[in-house]
Amino acid sequence: MIKMGLIGIGRMGSYHLNLYDEIPSLRLTALSDANEQILQEKAKQFNVFSSSNFEDILDKVDAVTIAAPTKFHFEIARKCLEAKKHVLVEKPITTNFEEAVELFNIAEKNNLVLHIGHVERFNGAVQELKKIVNNPYLIESRRVGPYVERMKDDSIVLDLMIHDIDIILNVMNREVIDVEAKGSKVYSNLPDFASVTLVFDNNAIANILVSRVTQKKDRTMSISQEDAFIHLDYTSQDINIYRKGLSQHIFGNKELTYKNEYILERLFVYKDNALKLEIKHFIDCIEGRKPRIVSVNHELRSLKVALEVDRILKSKVGRCEVIS
Ligand SMILES: NC(=O)c1ccc[n+]([C@@H]2O[C@H](COP(=O)([O-])OP(=O)(O)OC[C@H]3O[C@@H](n4cnc5c(N)ncnc54)[C@H](O)[C@@H]3O)[C@@H](O)[C@H]2O)c1
Q1: How confident is the model at residue 323 (pLDDT cuts 50, 70, 90)?
Q2: How do the domains of the chain map onto residue ranges?
């Protein structure tokens, strides 16, 4: 049984907390949050040790989840790893590549599990991709939704697009040789939408569109490869595969029509709670039942590309004026 502590019980931390009783081999033993009111409320509800100083809970746990704001991840994770605790840290692990490398080095030196909470990896539809994707040449990804004022100081790349970058890099498993990024501010002082192109070493291309100023939420990815066009919906966890596509123009007497035929395969996807699977995977790795699904090098690769996209975007972002 792994004794688990949670550091940061805000929006994301609360999701983790509410799932612990569904994970075999995990027992919540301690909580920490800088906000005393939140902390007392949750400590009473879950009847466990608590402290607003995360270092005080470390002798009560084998492992921690860090769901504090990103700017504190490095310091908290470093101290937890140095205290020989396994760590699941919410994404993004850090906003600095060298700090992420340092954390993985400490984890390796101490033989500890360090995972990043890329929850979308555990989406049932994403799990199926491994079985059907084969040498894709064009990927189109959309992650758009309405504006939320409280997110205005977060980077859309490190907050939203990092999920798409991570999944695309793991699907492609090739080197990125060029990055183009364009975006604009609308309501906040950071890019509120962005269009990014990743070019791979075989000239395959991924176009990623992210927006936090689009009235309708839409989270999808399409993949073109030789034998199939694959369409994935992250929200419904559905995958449709279109094969043997044929298109033709039909020249009638007075009009020209267009016909497209294909075979449509609707894949059966086992749909479970992705966050629950992410926590379960962390526990399985600690207990040696499973190897990590994404290697440390690939974890770092996703962060590196995300940081590069973020840097390019911020270096040339303009404001798109809207009439209100
Ligand atoms: N995986 C995902 O899809 C996903 C989604 C949302 C957020 N996140 C990540 O989760 C993290 C938290 O985001 P959130 O939206 O839950 O933020 P939040 O502001 O709702 O919650 C953060 C909590 O941490 C507490 N806190 C602050 N400093 C602390 C400290 N030093 N020690 C202990 N607690 C501290 C705050 O009091 C607050 O309760 C961020 O890194 C964010 O990027 C990931």
Answers
A1: low
A2: 2-117, 121-274+304-319
